[in-house]
Design goal:
The structure holds 2 protein chains of 2 kinds. Chain A is mainly β. Chain A is built from no helices and 12 strands. In chain A, strands 2, 5, 6, 10, 11 and 12 form a 6-stranded mixed β-sheet that branches.
Chain lengths: ~120, ~120
Amino acid sequence: AQSVTQPDIHITVSEGASLELRCNYSYGATPYLFWYVQSPGQGLQLLLKYFSGDTLVQGIKGFEAEFKRSQSSFNLRKPSVHWSDAAEYFCAVTSYGGATNKLIFGTGTLLAVQP
Amino acid sequence: EPEVTQTPSHQVTQMGQEVILRCVPISNHLYFYWYRQILGQKVEFLVSFYNNEISEKSEIFDDQFSVERPDGSNFTLKIRSTKLEDSAMYFCASSRTGGFEDTQYFGPGTRLTVL
């Protein structure tokens, strides 16, 4: 069965520092991968997604992610973090094992940004 | 930008009571979903719905749960007799085509507390 692991439950970075949030997936075929962000009181907002092609994908808010098949990873990066990036980040993979495209989520990484 | 809305934002109920969580998906979307997140755990798929029928449901979605699209705009999740373990954040989502690459747009969630 497909699964997603986000090893870091909580990360704190300083404003202006670079960020990398880790995501590992377990799936045999080429996965459809997503990163969502949830700010307090908001829904899950899509940051970016990967299906095929260029393994480095660009998203909104200056985020990017790189798909590495050899490492089963899809890590999210941002070169310079802003205070408004403080939120919870979820990695997800589309599950094929059913009638519809349900998402399988990781446990999320809570990002705190220090001034 | 169109968005998914959910009401109420927070619902408190007594064990054994019925609750109805409401969602208004994006207007031209055809596929609808409910997910939930128990505090500290992963976001989990509950059910998907298309063409006025359940497309797929998870093991969590037992006979106590039902979904309905009572009119052209609302999508509801009913829990017939709530249990303590139903306490969670419930997210509604919608997508246009239901394809594996299609983006699911999420609402802000309803926090259900069962006492």
